[in-house]
Amino acid sequence: MTEEIALSSIPIFGIGSAISDLSLLCDAPTRLTSLPLSHVGQMPLNQHLKDLPVRLLDRTPDIGDLVVFDLIEDGSFPELEVFTGQRVPLIVGRSYIGVCGESNSMSHFTSDLGLPSEPHDEWDLISVAGMVGHVTSHSRDLEIELGCGRPAKLRARGTLCHPNTGQPINTMREKGVFGIGLHSPSYAKIPSVVAIFGTTTNVGKTTTARQLIAHLRRHTLCGAIKATGTGSFGDTKQHLQAGALAASNFIRHGLPSTYALPDELLVNLFHNMIDEVEASLTATANSKPMSRLARRSSVILTEFGGDLIGAGNLAFLSDRSCLSRTLSTVICSDNAVSAIGAIEILRRHQPNGRQPSVFLAMPLVNPEAFYRRMKPYIDEGMIAGIFDINRPDTIRTETELRAYAISGEAILSVEKLADDLVALAQQFSEINHSRDLAKSAR
User: Fold this and answer.
1) Rounded CA separation 323/320 (Å)
2) The model's pTM
């Protein structure tokens, strides 16, 4: 018989934000979310938690299983992002609740959960949001970025289980992710998605999303989604702070990360997140002072984590139903060569049919040099244009032009790109509205 201990016997000092559904752990989640900030991470949470059984590991857990762990050695992430969105210090010897997952990040860790026949007692902290697994490699830049290249070491106490069935509590199963069937888009206001991809991490995806949201929200209903990557609420928090009226994150649907998951699951989850945000935008539309046309259109900035070919992003790029809901694709890169590689990946993987327009974000390089390298791709129609969040709002004289880039007039400001996206969204909205009117007249 598998050995079990009671959760009440283990003082719990934090719950990773990758576990978004606190009802799995407590009967009254608001008791946790309303705790004073000074209490979170400093005092045990057990009085607010269900006294669930903790089953000592006799197998390798599945992706999404909840696990109780002790921190036994500091590592790259000195803090844990918890359910309040804040980060609390991780302290050696204390116990926390995380979620099992896998990663294949170019900038952080690759990890797995081991072989089913070889359960492990020692684990690694894979993400700041509390995802755990076994690290198989890490980026050499991690030590430069975080000051430490090795992961924090954990001792797994066991998996949390349902008291009645004894089955492990799994965030994906509890959210019904595996039961998502083939999806039929249910909203007429499509396409509405602006898909933001990067050639790697730290190339400005979230910064670009924030800047676009700040401009889009003035003219249309604007939402935001973090669709793929390694789980954290940090990007979603920034989307909302920038002015998104509604937001979604794959963590809310039970996924600790989007690595090592079937394409069909990711595609259908993407559609469900779009529907979720569209429904929320529709519900708030009447309270906003907008024109009739703006009410019928919306733009949803959708940020994809990692790089173009990781984190399940190719599932989106290769799927017709996803592309049918996409207004435009934005590529963030760190240089012209990686931007050209991204264009080739789009060309190779996207199916025939209507292709969303592609815009390139200007990297932090010489803007004139980048523009000249990319101009042949503009001339061939492979990209619609280049925009720069750092472009001066107005360039009135040749002196001002040369101070930025001699071809600066051909480079869009983020405000001009936002205006173009709004116009495109409204154009599709009118087409769909006319189509609906024609159907109702039959």
Assistant:
1) 5
2) 0.89
